[in-house]
Amino acid sequence: DTGVSQDPRHKITKRGQNVTFRCDPISEHNRLYWYRQTLGQGPEFLTYFQNEAQLEKSRLLSDRFSAERPKGSFSTLEIQRTEQGDSAMYLCASSPTIGAPDNEQFFGPGTRLTVL
Amino acid sequence: AQSVTQLGSHVSVSEGALVLLRCNYSSSVPPYLFWYVQYPNQGLQLLLKYTTGATLVKGINGFEAEFKKSETSFHLTKPSAHMSDAAEYFCAVTYSGTYKYIFGTGTRLKVLA
């Protein structure tokens, strides 16, 4: 049973650089979510896909952030011109299509981003 | 706006003692409520959830939670703490018509030998 995987697990970058993270959801899950978790806080919703369609975006997702899920399978989250405030854990989750919002979201291990 | 409040960012209990982690939510519509646990360097794992029906929900590892609408609460309990319960616990809420979770700020549980 392969769960949600994320790559890389850790990323250190310099301010102003672009970074891209990848998420591979559980294979039969059509919904995919991105969250951001900063130190001492709970995860905050960023965006959500159903198949390849991006259906909801948080105001936290500034124009420097872009997420894609081109074939409805894996997803990428890109941050352009990184700032120190972007340092956080980026979590990906997936859930099945069938059912109501009470479906469990399965979380990956996260990608920890450090911007120097 | 919907929100979740977890009272106590850090809770310490002795091994074998009762665990009580508090969660209150604000909502104008019926909520779906979740408790997740996060171990160091790992993703979040679902402990239990409330959707509809029975208000006392049992989860994994001996945890349970009770949905109290009148108190807008969904506190997590375990009768006897084990060393392996040391982790961070998050309460989350979602609603019909959305798929995003709103998380609380988390409670770090420490279990003392």
Task: Describe the protein in words.
- The complex is a heterodimer of chains A (116) and B (113).
- With 116 residues, chain A is mostly beta strands.
- Helix content of chain A is 0%, strand content 48%.
- Chain A contains no helices and 11 strands.
- In chain A, strands 2, 4, 5, 6, 9, 10 and 11 form a 7-stranded mixed sheet that branches.
- Chain A starts with a strand and ends with a strand.
- The model of chain A has no long low-confidence stretch (mean pLDDT 91).
- Chain B is mostly beta strands and 113 residues long.
- Chain B is 0% helix and 53% strand.
- Chain B contains no helices and 12 strands.
- In chain B, the strands form 3 sheets. In chain B, strands 2, 5, 6, 10, 11 and 12 form a 6-stranded mixed sheet that branches. Chain B has a 4-stranded antiparallel sheet with strand order 3-9-8-7, with no helix packed on it. A two-stranded antiparallel ribbon of chain B has the order 1-4.
- The termini of chain B are far apart.
- The mean pLDDT of chain B is 93.
Topology:
The complex is a heterodimer of chains A (116) and B (113).
Chain A: E1 5-7, E2 10-13, E3 19-24, E4 31-37, E5 44-50, E6 53-57, E7 65-68, E8 75-79, E9 88-95, E10 106-107, E11 111-115
Parallel strand pairs in A: 2-11
Antiparallel strand pairs in A: 1-3, 3-8, 4-5, 4-9, 5-6, 7-8, 9-10, 9-11
Chain B: E1 3-5, E2 10-14, E3 19-21, E4 24-26, E5 31-38, E6 44-50, E7 56-58, E8 64-68, E9 73-78, E10 87-95, E11 102-103, E12 107-112
Parallel strand pairs in B: 2-12
Antiparallel strand pairs in B: 1-4, 3-9, 5-6, 5-10, 7-8, 8-9, 10-11, 10-12
